[in-house]
Design goal:
This protein has 123 residues and is mostly helical. The chain is built from five helices and no strands. Helix 1 packs antiparallel against helix 4, helix 3 packs parallel to helix 5 and helix 4 packs antiparallel against helix 5. The chain is flat, with a radius of gyration of 16 Å. It starts with a helix and ends in a 10-residue tail after the last helix.
Length: 123
């Protein structure tokens, strides 16, 4: 995601900064993956609670990402969008289908009720 955001704004991606950011993110991703991907027989948390948590993460990161990319400066987008985008995609992919659809519909509903219009660049 960092590469895509930097390429979009025509900025150079510095490898040392990327390695630093990677080392900051890896423990969190490892912990979340460990807690979420355990078999149901060995799970620490009930399956429905995990799905609810993932749906909440989906809503928070999706709404935040759309808000940042539509209202903030490109420097703030370059700093925050890759992390939020990865967490949003990860949460949607990790959910069951019904929960994922509900989470994405929730992001769309918040976006619509906030008074924002979804516009396609070619229309």
């Amino acid at each position: 995601m960092d590469y895509a955001v930097h390429a979009q704004f025509g900025q150079v991606l510095v490898p040392s900064r990327e390695v630093y950011r990677l080392f900051n993110v890896v423990p969190t991703i490892y912990l979340l993956t460990f807690l979420i991907s355990r078999p149901r027989s060995k799970a620490f948390v009930p399956h429905q609670a995990v799905q609810f948590l993932l749906c909440a993460i989906c809503l928070a990161t999706g709404v935040g990402l759309i808000h940042i990319t539509t209202t903030e400066s490109y420097l703030k987008v370059m700093r925050q969008a890759p992390g939020l985008g990865c967490l949003w995609v990860w949460s949607v992919v990790s959910m069951d289908l019904a929960w994922a659809v509900a989470g994405l519909a929730g992001v769309g509903a918040v976006h619509k009720f906030a008074g924002n219009k979804i516009q396609w660049p070619w229309m």
